[in-house]
Amino acid sequence: MQNDEKPGRVVVVGDIVMDYFVAGTASQLDQTAAVPIVKVPADSSWMSPGGAAFAARNVVAMVTPAALVSAMGTDHASDQYMGFLSRVDSVFGGNYLCKHYIARVEGYQTPQKYRTYADKRLVARYDVDDPIKVSVEDYIIDMFQRCVADEPARVILISDYDKGVCTPRVVETVLKYGVQNNVPVIVDPVAQHMSWYSGVHMVLPNTVEVCKATNQPERNVVNATKILQKRLGVKHCVTTCGADGLIVCDEDQNITRIPAIAVNAVDSCGAGDVVASAAAIGTFAGMSPELLWKTAIIAGGLSTQHCGTRAVGMHHVHRHIAGTTPTVKKMPLEYAELLRMSVALAEESVGVANGVFDILHAGHLSMLYEAAAQCNFLIVLVNGAASATKCKNRDVTALEMRCLQLSRVPYVDAIVVFDEDTPEEAIKALQPDVLIKGPELEGKEDTIPGASFVRQNGGRVHITKLSFDIHSSDIRNAAEEETNDDEKS
């Protein structure tokens, strides 16, 4: 979530791990061993940069500028990652929110993990990872110093996978920068390096890591969290506990339990990275602790709904919150612009529809339903009180009532009020991929405000079908006639 009050970005320092995934179905075992035969469709294998690279992608998915400091080898896996970066730069025209400071070091093997899923269950994993690493320490320190010289860090996230990037001297350099520049450092650690991170702003171990670091059984995870917080002297020690949510211990040794959200969990791969990234974003944006933990637990939960890793965008978190609190759908245009950027970063589409929506009826609902089918995220622009009255040449239902009714429509994702005579300026700000209008404008597309801009910007105009020939004025007139008849009788 962008915060333009101060310059800077989230700097992610850590190990890049190249993740490879294969997903298929299994109905029988191999004849020579008790292992499943996984039948994989041609389009069901994919690559996804993991580790610190995945953490940085999640920072960007929440529309927050980031920089990634890391190292890779000169092997095939690093070639694939560079190809991934080229594709991203091409898609976003060089305006991707993450800048990369990656050293390619001869002799260093890029860590790789291969996972196979059968019927959405992980059935095999194998790692390609030389335990004897060529030192990349000097390269990382140089890259970090270049990074913060180009643009200061406002938050630093260390994503430590113990693959050779996070060494004592690298960590010392990063922490020293944090202290000298009053930059909070957040760490997603491994148990064996825990002592390196004394005095940081936040550490986020998982249950196994915190218990291993404190020599506690896993049933004593709360006590282990308190022990680690006191030992390291961190402001927040946050233990990620999977389906049991988060355990947060603050500097006063107060414990807060954050319950996990209810989701149809498929795979927890990468969930810890998502939670750590959300914590960095919340710190960057100056969120209250309550909002920060809420955002982190929602993002972490949503990330488990798919096989493999998938970045969780701001619009995903917004949609989840709107499911239980529909009134959050009404928002300023500026916030809708951030959501629009989040959708674009996920390479999904935004649709915009507009209207007065006076007395919400079946015609409106059918139009909105069809509009939602044309895009991944639907934003509805609603005439404000003055422009609605001018448009209808009469008084209309109060603005708050119209927005409240629209917020209860499940396929509406966001609602923005505009006070101008037409929504053209809001449409230009939101840059929709598709502009949706009702059937009364069929054949009159050139007269639609914003239509020419959308088309020139590579989008399209969609005219919905007439499912119900109903109009608010008809409902209003019928009600008035009935009232008059009652008064006469």
Question: Describe it for me?
Answer:
The protein has 489 residues and is an alpha/beta fold. Among the domains are: 1-31 and 39-183, 3-Layer(aba) Sandwich (UDP-N-acetylmuramoyl-L-alanine:D-glutamate ligase); 327-478, HUPs (Rossmann fold), CATH 3.40.50. The chain contains 16 helices and 19 strands. The protein has helices at 52-61, 76-91, 137-150, 168-180, 207-214, 221-232, 271-285, 289-302, 314-324, 333-345, 362-373, 385-392, 399-407, 424-430, 451-456, 472-488, and strands spanning 9-14, 16-29, 36-39, 45-51, 66-72, 98-104, 112-118, 121-128, 153-159, 185-188, 202-203, 236-240, 246-250, 255-258, 350-355, 377-383, 414-418, 434-437, 460-463. The chain has a 9-stranded mixed beta sheet, with helices on both faces. Helix 3 packs parallel to helix 4, helix 5 (207-214) packs across helix 6 and helix 8 crosses helix 9 (314-324). The longest helix is centred in the C-terminal third of the chain and has 17 residues, at 472-488. It is globular and about 75 Å long.
Shape estimate: globular
- Low-confidence segments, ≥5 residues, pLDDT <50? none
Calculate the mean pLDDT score and round it. 92
- Order of strands in the sheet with the most strands? 6-5-1-9-10-11-12-13-14
CATH architecture of the domain at 1-31 and 39-183: 3-Layer(aba) Sandwich
Distance between the termini: 60 Å
Largest sheet: 9 strands, mixed
Number of helices: 16
Structural class: alpha/beta
**Cα-atom Rg, whole angstroms?**
26 Å
Count of extended strands: 19
Q: Briefly, what CATH class of the domain at 1-31 and 39-183?
A: Alpha Beta
Strand content: 15-25%
- Percent range of helical residues: 25-40%
